Amino acid sequence: MSVPKFGFSAFLKIINANPRPQRTSVHKRCGPSTGGYDFHKSLRHRVQQVSFHGLSRAAVLASTQRISRLSERNSAEQALKQFFLWKDANPGEFEQATPLTFWSPARLYKVEFIPDFMTQIGDRRTAIHLWNTKNPLDGRLVRAVLSAVAARYPVENRPDDIAVLSLKNRTLYRWSEADRDTRALGNRLLEMLDMQFATARAELGLPASPDLDGPKPRPRP
Question: What is the pTM of this model?
Answer without folding.
Answer: 0.89
